[in-house]
Amino acid sequence: MTHFSAFSLLKNALTGHKNWTEQWPDAQPKAEYDVIIVGAGGHGLGAAYYLATQHGITNIAVIDKGWLGGGNTGRNTTIIRSNYLYDESARLFDHSVDLWQNLSQELNYNVMYSNRGVLMLAHNVHDVQSFKRHVHSNRLNGVDNRWLSTEECKEYCPPLNISKSSRYPVMGGALQERAGTARHDAVAWGYARGAAARGVDVIQNCAVQAIRRNDDGSVAGVDTDKGFIKAKKVAVSASGHNSMVMATAGVRLPLESMPLQALVSEPVKPVFPCVVMSNAVHAYCSQSDKGELVIGSGTDQYVSYGQRGGLPLIEHTVSAISEVFPIFNRMRMLRKWAGITDNTPDRSPIIGKTPVPNLYVNCGWGTGGFKATPGSAHVFAWTIAKDEPHPINAPFTLDRFRTGRLIDEAAAAAVAH
Ligand SMILES: Cc1cc2nc3c(=O)[nH]c(=O)nc-3n(C[C@H](O)[C@H](O)[C@H](O)COP(=O)(O)OP(=O)(O)OC[C@H]3O[C@@H](n4cnc5c(N)ncnc54)[C@H](O)[C@@H]3O)c2cc1C
């Protein structure tokens, strides 16, 4: 398996890049594993990586119905930030932002983490009050976030329209400077390569049809396209389809699956220095290293498993972007796509044990789980290995929807990218 080093780069450059070996083998299922992870997105692959590197568990299969990283991990707009309102969320997302800083070095794989700053625009009095509340709460939690005046927003992001007669006037903004973006595919590839190098089987094109249980109710394994595979523990990270997979084990999850869309423009020279989020109008923008504007919108307002989404939402998003950044008015859009997000009532994830012994779930990331990939995978691996939650994910139980101890980021921000 290829290992990246200055020497291997030089050697392969001199031999015309014809001798690079595979990044990870195309594994076929064994009869039995210690842990089966359903879903080879960043969260599933990351959990396998941390199980292998931090808990010494390597007899693991990560199984995906498609190709690895082909779910939301490879479809998102890559916004990374940790300026959430509640203490529980701040701890979880900031743990992740901490891990992002050195992830390329940890994986020996360039995930292109760029902390270019995320600026959240306030367009009305409610936004101003809500974001200032976030700034204060974040500071109390040791999370960087500061308030910028309208003029300071313009200075930080010159393409911004701050005209007072604009349809969406900018009344200021909250800036998290440690926040930014990363290359989404590389995150999946880096974790897959790191996990496979330690003996983890990454099995693609193999749908999990059902989770099978023993007579005592505990997990027995999974039925797949390639037959039954026995497992001591099963962990589910099948974003968008978690409720369906978990229902086969008799666990009902409080999730609604909805399409979320994104689009990219034709590439242009570097013009956009940061990430801008406009929650009130549901439009987000950054510029990729290739030069494309990466634009995201809000979820379609209906439940669906169709990975397409409707055009009215795209039209709304593009018109909002044109209003907030008039210099992009005449740019052409190249591609649009959607992913299926699974949304909890409080818009916070569920990471932990389930009522079924030895069955674990990491789900409900809605529109904002990419940023959490390293942090969540890290604490999920802990939970699987020790059969108990890590202190960081302990509040993110399934049970909170019964007890009412919600972590209501939905009410706090109404958006979670
Ligand atoms: C358009 C869009 C924009 C987004 N923007 C952002 C953003 O800017 N910032 C942010 O933080 N988050 C964002 N998100 C959310 C983020 O992408 C997800 O929360 C995160 O990537 C989820 O990762 P995952 O590993 O849990 O799931 P996924 O990457 O979706 O992986 C789950 C995998 O499970 C597999 N699977 C499903 N069912 C089965 C089955 N029965 N058997 C086997 N495998 C199965 C799927 O094929 C898939 O590969 C966005 C999402 C979308 C769609």
From TrEMBL:
Subcellular compartments: Cytoplasm
Chief localization: cytoplasm
Catalytic class of the enzyme: oxidoreductase
Gene3D superfamilies found in the cross-reference section: D-Amino Acid Oxidase, subunit A, domain 2, FAD/NAD(P)-binding domain
Organism: Salipiger pallidus
Protein known as: Sarcosine oxidase subunit beta
Annotated ranges, domain Rhodanese: 35-79
Gene behind the chain: soxB
Family to which the UniProt record says this protein belongs: Belongs to the SoxB family.
GO molecular function, a single term: sarcosine oxidase activity
